[in-house]
Amino acid sequence: MARAVPAPATGFGLRRGPLLWVVAVAGFAALWLWGDAALPWAFEIPRGWRPPFAGWIGGALDWLTDEADFGLFTFRELTRFVSAVIDVPYQVALGLLSDGASVFGVPVPPVGWLGVTLLVALLGLALGGVPLAALSGGAFLFIAVFGQWTSAMFTLASIVVAVPLGVGSGLILGIAGHRWKRFGRAIVPVLDLMQTIPIFAYLVPILILFGFGPTSAMIATLIYAMPPMTRITMLALHRVPGEIVDLGRMIGCTRRQMTWRVMVPSAQEALMVGVNQVIMLSLNMVIIASMIGAGGLGFDVLSALRRLDFGAGLEAGFAIVALAIALDRLSQAAAARRPPELQSGGFIARHPFVVAALAVLVGATLAGLALPAVQSYPEAAELSTGSFWSEVVAYINVHFFDAIEAVKNAVLLNVLIPVKRFLIGLPWLGVAGLLALAGWRLGGYRLAALTGGLTVLIAATGLWEEAMTTVYLCGISVVFAMLIGLPIGMLVAERDRLWAWVRVVIDTIQTLPAFVYLMPAVMLFRVGDFTAMIAIVAFALAPAIRYTVLGLRGVDRSLIEAGEAMGCTPLQILTRIRLRLAMPEILLGLNQTIMFALSMLVITALVGTRDLGQEVYIALTKADAGRGLVAGLCVAFIAIIADRLIHAAASRTRARLGLADGGAHDAA
Amino acid sequence: MTTKRLSAIALALLTSTSAYAQESTDPIKLTLHDWTGQLITTQLMGEVLKAGGYNVEYVQADYLAQFAGLETGDLDVAMEIWETTGREAMDAATATGNVVNVGPTGMQAKEEWWYPLYMKEQCPGLPNWEALKEPACAEAFGTAETLPKGRYLGGPVTWGGFDDERVEALDLPFEVIHAGTDAALFAELESAIQRQAPILLWVYAPHWAPAKYEGEWVEFPEYSAECYADPAVGLNPDLAYDCGKPFGDIWKVAWAGVKDKWPGAYSAIEAFTISNDDMGAMITEVDLNGQSVEQVVADWMAANEATWQGWIQ
Question: Is residue A606 within 8 angstroms of chain B, CB to CB?
Answer without folding.
Answer: yes
